[in-house]
């Protein structure tokens, strides 16, 4: 080790990780509180251990006095999402922030790694505020689905256990498992899209139903009792037969009747 005070060296990174975690967890809380869809499932973070920093510096040939710029993931957070589409929404949320600057991005989803690893990485420059002023810190934001995280966590622990000398057949099986996880993500996205479409369809239908019933109420208000009762009977029949075309037609007729009622004219 050189003459650095390593514990002091890690302080800004610890501060950056704590702040970044709070900010992205806060984003989830805020979206949920506004009843909006939150693309963030959960957030973790860590500061790289000194032994791991030194090992990486050696592996990447980074001189010890250039560690701050040569190693970009001393501060790192990880944002887990339910669906692949959410990853892109989170990436947008990172890009639009004014309190950090994107340095560059690595799309390991389109260009997955040889191991099968998938994730979206954004390296940001995040200024922390210290007693002697602002200090920029590099941080890595990894954005991935729950399935990608499941795979990466297990693969990481196996690599750790086998000291990065995994037997070839195990590597192959892990690669296949990564493909399977990716298929799972794809399938979940499709299912989700179908649910969203069905929901929109339902909202469209319930919009017509609400309109017909409101307009029938309007007819009662204008004392067009007989007309209103006839429409109500037709509505009941169409509703029972789940005849959406009939309901749409009826909606037009009721609307016209209501307009006539407002003007005080009869059919
Ligand atoms: N589990 C797992 N994680 C990976 C893999 N590849 C990359 N990562 C994660 O992504 C981080 C950044 O990886 P890279 O984008 O390759 O960056 P790098 O710092 O140039 O290279 P390395 O850290 O040596 O992989 C790593 O520190 C890991 O946390 C992989 O094959 N498996
Ligand atoms: N950006 C990150 N956010 C949260 N956790 C992370 C992040 N990067 C790595 N980790 C986790 O931190 C732990 C320690 O990993 P370590 O810092 O040694 O780095 P690594 O990502 O595995 O590898 P490398 O040394 O190649 O960068 C592992 O469990 C790893 O999954």
Tell me what the structure shows:
Its EC number is 2.7.6.5. GO terms for molecular function: ATP binding; GTP diphosphokinase activity; kinase activity. It is an enzyme of class 2 (transferase). It holds the Pfam family RelA_SpoT. It comes from Cohnella thailandensis. With 267 residues, the chain is α+β, with helices and mostly antiparallel strands. The chain folds into two domains: 6-166, Beta Polymerase, domain 2 (2-Layer Sandwich); 168-267, no CATH class. Helices cover 60% and strands 16% of the residues. The chain has eight helices and five strands, in the order H-E-H-H-E-H-E-E-E-H-H-H-H. It has helices at 6-33, 50-59, 67-70, 84-95, 146-161, 168-221, 225-240, 244-263, and strands at 42-47, 75-81, 101-107, 120-130, 133-145. Strands 1-2-5-4-3 form a five-stranded mixed sheet. The longest helix has 54 residues, at 168-221. The protein is elongated, with a radius of gyration of 29 Å. The protein binds guanosine-5'-triphosphate (GTP) and adenosine-5'-triphosphate (ATP). Adenosine-5'-triphosphate is lined by residues 44-46, 48, 52, 56, 73, 76-78, 140, 142, 156.
Task: Furnish the topology, listing elements before pairings.
Blueprint: H1 6-33, E1 42-47, H2 50-59, H3 67-70, E2 75-81, H4 84-95, E3 101-107, E4 120-130, E5 133-145, H5 146-161, H6 168-221, H7 225-240, H8 244-263
Parallel strand pairs: 2-5
Antiparallel strand pairs: 1-2, 3-4, 4-5
Helix pairs in contact: 5-6, 6-7, 6-8, 7-8
The site of guanosine-5'-triphosphate has 9 residues, from helix 5.
